[in-house]
Specification:
Blueprint (H helix, E strand, L loop, with lengths): L1 E6 L6 H11 L10 H10 L5 E6 L3 H6 L1 H13 L4 E5 L10
Parallel strand pairs: 1-2, 2-3
Helix pairs in contact: 2-4
C-alpha cells in the first residue's frame, strides 16, 4: 500500500493543501483545486490502495480543515479499504534501521 503524508505545519490553508496534493500525487495543472475536484481524484483518479497521514493536525486545524477531513473520511468509507486516513497530532517517529 502506497503511503502519503501531509504535514499541516506546512499547510496553512486549502489552496496550500491542494498544491501539496497535486505535488504528492503528480497531478496535472488541470486539477480544479476545489472539494469537488478533490473528491473526483480521491475516488477515481489517484492510484489505490493508499494510506494517507494528516500529521500535526491540532484541534484548531481540525476545525479549519473540517470539510477536507470529512471528504477523506467519506472516501475512506466508500472505497472500502482501498484508502486509509490517519489523523495524527504529532509526526510519526521513523523506525531506526
Amino acid at each position: 500500500m502506497n503511503k502519503v503524508s501531509f504535514d499541516f505545519n506546512h499547510i496553512p490553508d486549502l489552496p496550500a493543501f491542494y498544491a501539496e496534493f497535486v505535488r504528492q500525487f503528480a497531478l496535472t495543472e488541470s486539477f480544479g483545486a476545489n472539494l469537488d475536484a478533490l473528491w473526483d481524484e480521491v475516488t477515481g483518479g489517484i492510484a489505490l490502495p493508499v494510506e494517507i497521514d494528516f500529521i500535526n493536525l491540532t484541534a484548531s486545524r481540525k476545525r479549519r480543515f473540517g470539510a477536507l477531513i470529512l471528504l477523506f473520511e467519506e472516501a475512506e468509507e466508500e472505497l472500502e479499504g482501498e484508502l486509509r486516513l490517519n489523523l495524527l497530532e504529532k509526526p510519526v517517529a521513523k523506525a531506526k534501521g
